[in-house]
Design a protein that fits this description.
alpha+beta; three-stranded antiparallel β-sheet; 6 helices; 13% strand; globular
């Protein structure tokens, strides 16, 4: 049985991200299964701290991909992170375009 694809919500503001995370919590999702991602890595860190959600990091990506991301553009890094948690390349490109426009992703990792 292959793992299910992560669920992705596209939100506009940090407050929307907070509401989305709280809604997921109320539906029984654990904080460990919720990720936030913004185009700017600092904004991602701030959102993760504010919502008590996770960032896609070395655990999810693996060491080699995580190290390679140091040398990638932010767009390439974002697409790599999304693909590392089971999102297709085409979907990752679409989501990265949403992030380019200032939106935020709230991702529920379904294992």
């Amino acid at each position: 049985m292959e793992p299910m694809k992560p669920s992705v919500q596209i939100v506009t503001t940090a407050m929307d991200a907070l509401h989305a995370v709280r809604e997921l919590n109320s539906r029984g999702y654990k904080q460990d299964d919720i990720y936030v991602l913004a185009h700017d890595s600092e904004k991602t860190k701030e959102l993760a701290a504010a919502t008590e959600a996770n960032q896609i990091g070395m655990t999810e990506e693996g060491v080699l991909s995580s190290v390679a991301n140091v040398f990638r553009s932010r767009g390439d890094e974002i697409r790599s992170k999304l693909q590392s948690i089971g999102i297709t390349e085409a979907e990752a490109e679409r989501y990265e375009e949403e992030l380019d426009q200032g939106r935020v992703l709230v991702i529920t990792n379904i294992n």
